[in-house]
Design brief:
There is one protein chain. By secondary structure, the chain is an all-alpha fold.
Length: 315
């Protein structure tokens, strides 16, 4: 699992860009059905990939070190997001900022896209705790035990969403089933036919339904079927974005908030497409720009736990 898989980086690129696009409120509010459709699969697929890719073979010290360097950017950016939500006129408005509220948002119910990192850490710790210890417990029993733990976190402690945790678990199951990702998700352009049919029923536009799960499978299958015919330069772009999704996840909210400044200048375009294109470019390049500055100013070791987070682009 140490070698990068080009198709998976491509999928991660698609899903992170969709996440950014539909966090641009001016654009997403114009297309509520498309937003609901995209929300059915983009983050579930991301969680599924996360479960599949997480390495539990690591020594406990290495695993906890990896999680610590997810916690640091999460804690800093989530705290900043909560504070800014108390100051700026945003949809997730915080009315009364306090230390108790910060602690509650940081540890229990995060705001903004940072819920993903919160879920990633909690699901990851459970996964590691169940699967890493050696013993005679078979893989199916470990999967069931992991699912029970996720259900307890969701229903008793209410710190994760059960559907999200189950998609993470699905990724774990695929990996421990001994299947390659691209063998389980068979590439097929014909996936578009049942995908369109399922998508016409609004009851399926819910990640926690059989129809919603089928949409997740079919969209991955369809995207994988498109990958081989993409131009080489697009594959290179997708690979680079997909290998740096953490940067975009962490810093994109800064620019999705700031992009509201553009609305008065671009309101003449009723479709919102021009706003989307400009805001997306600013968000992607701005996020990478912050990472580049952190590398150059030698801040990355204290924020990411790495000397350099932004890798050079390779053709």
């Amino acid at each position: 699992m140490s070698k990068r898989i080009a198709e998976i980086d491509y999928l991660k690129c698609v899903f992170i860009l969709l996440m950014i696009a539909f966090h641009l409120v001016f654009f997403s509010d114009k297309y509520p059905w498309i937003k609901q459709w995209v929300y059915t699969f983009h983050m579930p697929a991301f969680l599924l990939l996360s479960g599949y890719l997480m390495r539990i073979e690591k020594h406990p010290g290495d695993f906890f070190r990896m999680m610590f360097w997810i916690l640091i950017p999460y804690a800093i950016m989530e705290t900043g997001y909560v504070i800014m939500s108390a100051v700026l006129p945003v949809r997730e408005k915080v009315d009364a900022l306090s230390a108790g509220l910060l602690i509650e948002k940081l540890f229990l119910h995060p705001m903004g896209p940072y819920w993903y990192l919160h879920t990633f850490m909690l699901c990851g710790f459970v996964y590691y705790g169940v699967f890493h210890p050696k013993g005679k417990i078979n893989e199916l029993s470990r999967l069931i035990l992991t699912g029970v733990c996720y259900a307890i976190l969701a229903e008793c402690f209410q710190v994760v969403s059960l559907p999200n945790a189950l998609y993470f678990l699905a990724g774990i199951a695929i990996r421990h089933g001994g299947l390659k990702f691209t063998s389980f998700f068979r590439p097929s352009f014909f996936a578009i036919i049942p995908l369109i049919w399922l998508s016409t029923y609004t009851t399926n536009l819910d990640r926690f339904t059989l129809g919603g799960a089928a949409i997740v499978y079919l969209i991955i299958s369809l995207l994988l079927s498109i990958y081989p015919i993409l131009p080489l330069h697009f594959k290179q772009f997708a690979s680079y974005i997909g290998s740096h999704t953490l940067i975009l996840l962490v810093f994109s909210p800064v620019f999705t908030m700031l992009s509201k400044i553009l609305i008065p200048f671009l309101a003449f375009d009723n479709s919102g497409i021009l706003f989307l294109i400009i805001a997306m470019v600013i968000t992607v390049y701005g996020s990478f720009g912050i990472a580049w500055c952190m590398d150059r100013l030698h801040i990355s070791p204290y924020f990411w736990g790495k000397e350099q987070i932004l890798q050079p682009f390779r053709k």
